[in-house]
Design goal:
The protein is of the alpha/beta class and 472 residues long. The protein contains 14 helices and 15 strands. Strand 2 and strand 3 form a beta hairpin.
Length: 472
């Protein structure tokens, strides 16, 4: 079995920096800001000849507010799941009380613990090692997560000392890492399974995205709080739900530009946009108690512009009276009429109301993204659309569309060849988009149409420059 290694330590000691360097990615947010990481993040790592699952965790802090307590619980879960603990400390700051408290808990856990002293550049390593000997662990190593110094040697020593490690049984419902076969199935962002549907859950802050993921997984997989902006990073959560494998992507809430005050919020929103581009299907969650607002429409525009398939969920519908619910349905029908064949579900993420129908639509939408269409089928639809409503004349000349074919999938790109097609007005293009969507029956899937002019067969044969020279 592939061992699982957890990075444990207090805030701002370099856990996420080490996570990014070992995973050869920028998955974890890294800033000179304590308490940035909150939820557990997983990655499959291959360092030279060694393979393992790496868990990044939030810093264990002495603060006792609601979010900090949940971060603490996330770290405790990671300790239980792990076979090996890399206990990270800050060499520049030195040994402090918080390190001593974490060390006491790690001694009780009886896990294989390696003390990793980070930020040792330009420092006396012998003196630093002597200071941290009081933690009571035999294995102490010096690294610099920023420059990469000592990291390969650390991994070699960890595996050389743990050749006979007895891997503990893992909670497969929580991790979903150990497969039924002997080989490992690490359904995480760096090695996503082809059969899994990547499902990004997006929306404004505090609309219930993390609550929905926790209800589906049946665990406190991600931190939930009434404080807006609790989720800061995109968390990939593998889950088996309704007989299907999903990679749920919990994202940070996207708020108005005027309300983005810190660099952390800016990076969180960038991570959300990257998750949308990485997903197969996107669930946009709207707060039913507030209704459809401008920020929801702005997110819709970004999702459709990037060609992502879409399902809309109106959360907190259990708190809406019937009259207001009917008014909300009417408002959504009018303001979202530009989305063809959309699916809107009224759910309660807290109590699980309407989730089966929601995921049925997600599966339907995903199947539509995989639908293959032939050139003849598209051309017939195009001719029917023209027969039903002809394009306008351009300078008394007709626009001639000859045939259509697929230019790409997910999103579906339809390329139409013909003469004067570059003059097709935007209104007629919208008509074609709607006609193709209903004819192919693409549920919640955007379509892009590209026009390609026919080549003039006489252009190469008749050289104007030669003709002018002969006239002279």
């Amino acid at each position: 079995m592939i061992p699982i290694i957890a990075l444990i330590g207090r805030c701002n000691v370099g856990k996420s920096t080490l996570f990014n360097r070992l995973s050869n990615s920028k998955d974890a947010l890294v800033l000179n800001c304590p308490g940035l990481t909150r939820d557990r993040k997983y990655s499959k790592v291959k360092c030279e000849k060694y393979e393992f699952i790496l868990i990044d965790t939030g810093g264990i802090d002495k603060s006792k507010n609601c979010i900090e307590l949940q971060i603490h619980d996330q770290s405790l879960i990671a300790i239980e799941e792990a076979d090996i603990i890399l206990f990270m400390v800050d060499g520049r700051v030195g040994l402090i009380d918080d390190d001593q408290k974490i060390a006491k808990y790690l001694h009780v856990s009886k896990k294989s613990v390696f003390v990793v002293i980070n930020k040792i550049d330009a420092l006396d390593t012998d003196l630093i090692n002597y200071r941290f000997c009081s933690l009571g662990f035999k294995n102490i190593y010096n690294i610099s997560a920023t420059s990469g110094r000592g990291i390969n040697e650390l991994i070699k020593q960890v595996f050389s000392l743990q050749l006979n490690i007895n891997l503990t049984k893992k909670n497969t419902h929580t991790l979903n890492i150990i497969s039924k076969d002997k080989e490992q199935s690490t359904q995480i962002k760096n090695n996503l399974c082809d059969v899994s549907i990547k499902l990004a859950i997006v929306g404004r802050p505090n609309v219930g995205k993390s609550t929905l993921i926790n209800y589906i997984t049946g665990t406190k997989r991600v931190i939930v709080s009434k404080i807006p902006g609790t989720t800061r990073d995109s968390i990939y959560v593998p889950v088996h739900y309704n007989h299907e494998d999903y990679i749920l992507i919990d994202t940070a809430g996207v708020c108005k530009k005027q309300k983005i005050n810190s660099i952390v919020e800016k990076f969180s929103i960038i991570k959300t946009f990257q998750a949308i581009q990485d997903a197969n299907v996107v669930i946009l969650i709207i707060d039913g108690s507030e209704g459809l607002v401008h920020q929801d429409l702005w997110l819709l525009e970004f999702i459709i512009h990037n060609g992502r398939s879409l399902v809309i969920a109106v959360n907190k519908s259990d708190n809406i009276i019937e009259k207001d619910l009917n008014d909300l349905k009417s408002t959504l029908a009018v303001r979202l009429n530009f989305i063809y064949l959309k699916k809107i579900h009224f759910i309660s993420a807290l109590y699980g109301k309407g989730l089966k129908k929601l995921f049925y639509s997600v599966k339907q939408t995903y199947n539509c993204t995989q639908k293959q269409v032939s050139t003849s089928f598209l051309t017939n639809i195009m001719h029917k659309a023209i027969a039903n409503h002809k394009p306008p004349l351009i300078y008394h000349n007709a626009i001639k569309m000859k045939y259509a074919h697929v230019g790409g999938y997910n999103p579906l790109i339809i390329i139409i060849h013909g003469n004067r097609v570059s003059y097709v007005p935007h209104s007629y293009k919208r008509y074609l988009l709607k006609y193709f969507s209903h004819s192919i029956n693409l549920l919640g899937c955007p379509i892009f149409i590209q026009f390609k002019e026919g080549v003039n067969p006489y252009k190469k044969k008749f050289n104007i420059s030669v003709f002018k020279k002969t006239q002279k």
